[in-house]
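Can anyone check this?
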Amino acid sequence: MSTRACIIVVSDRAHQGIRPDATAPALAQVLAEGGFAVDAVSVVPDEIPAIAAAIAEASRGGGLVLTTGGTGAAPRDVTPEATRQVITKELPGFGEEMRRRSLATVPSAIGSRATAGTCGLALVVNLPGSPKGAVECLAFVLAAARHVLTLLAGDTRDCGQAAPAPDGIPAAATASPSLQRT
């Protein structure tokens, strides 16, 4: 069974038809390969009300909601602000991990303001607007996204047993000190 996903392209130029979007097709391919069914792709301008409305609409069906673009410091980059208007629980670790991993090859990644959070039974994740950056950042957080979606679906078994240890660190080293036995 596949998990539902929606992609929201945040771009004034793509919305106006000035520039075709290449990011959504690249993400859709990665999602399909990862067992996600892309339910919808929408294109909205860099405006908080339009972005927030698109996120709220896409979140109604649960699943993974990806935004692309609008995460930088330019005056019209407002995707994180719009996201914060509709999410109920912010999950800043997604943005932190994307910045951390991207910084190794893209020095400007430190200027990203991408975030993530829950909206009902959906996980909303802000990704960069470039196809390469969006695909790379999705790869950095896709395992964590699956875990959050499992939790949102009601599977709340012991998280320490359900999730693999990060970056090859032995599971015992990542367990909470209160859970470790000496």
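Reply from J.R.: I decoded it. Residues 131-152 form the longest helix (22 residues).
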